[in-house]
Design goal:
Strand content: under 5%
Oligomer: single chain
Helix content: over 70%
Shape: globular
Distance between the termini: 33 Å
Keywords: DNA-binding
Number of strands: 0
Protein name: DNA-binding transcriptional regulator, CsgD family
Number of domains: 1
Radius of gyration: 18 Å
GO molecular function: DNA binding
Number of helices: 9
InterPro entries: Sig_transdc_resp-reg_C-effctor, WH-like_DNA-bd_sf
Length: 150
Amino acid sequence: MSDRDAAEEVSLKEQLDRIEQKIDRMLGLYDALGDIAAGLPPRLVAALHTMSPAEHVALQMVLDNRSNHEISVCLDVEEPRVAEWVDAVLAKLGVNRRAEIRRLMQPLMAAIPPENYARASGGIPKDWNDKYGVGGVPDPYRRIYHPNPD
């Protein structure tokens, strides 16, 4: 294979990756519109779609009433990084306290379909905290949210 052929193959791969990302965003928007039509608050649905996978993990752990320290130990991440994620969740929801996150998001989490949540979260399942939110439990989703994948 010539250098030119290799470059064209890389370019095609990049184009396909961009197309897949656009399709994922469109499907996420479709899910969001369906969730809104089903009566879920548009502002909260939109906030879910703007959060990073790491912020979704932090969100689930905040909903479980975990402190930043507990989250950092469980995820093997520095506490300031966790604080950044939690602060981002607070900002995206337009609230100032963790209790407000729980008040707003617990009903939404109960109502949103698991497949829609997974798409909004970048692949983190809705029940991630129940299954993997304990330190030492092998987490197949770690590569999605962890800043320094193993």
